[in-house]
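Morning run. Coffee first, then this:
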Amino acid sequence: MVPIFLLSPAGGVYHEWNGYLPPTDYLAELELGLGKAQLRERRFGRAATIFEDLRDNRPRSHVAAEATYWAAVARYNESDQAGRADGRLAEAARPLSGEHLAREAADVRAGRGPTSSRPRSR
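And here it is:
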């Protein structure tokens, strides 16, 4: 049994594997971990390349399907779509923020009513 632990500089675990693997599967598992480390460090292009190479060069590996998934995640995060989605999510969550709710509560206490643009129930 030869474990794999890929650690961040801060001591966090990027990837771990504990168990026996034949040499080619061990290398595939190690490559998967290297891709995950790049992904966690927000190096999306490099991560996607590692995952795609793993998928293409070791298609029968036990990690080929997982590499395909993580390649898609990395490419998505590398694209503009991820930034736009983050912006839309932040805008949608704005009414839920504590600051917004505190301001709305202060307006209600001051008799100014809610500041939300949501329709009021009757």
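Residues 23-40 form the longest helix (18 residues). Good start to the day.
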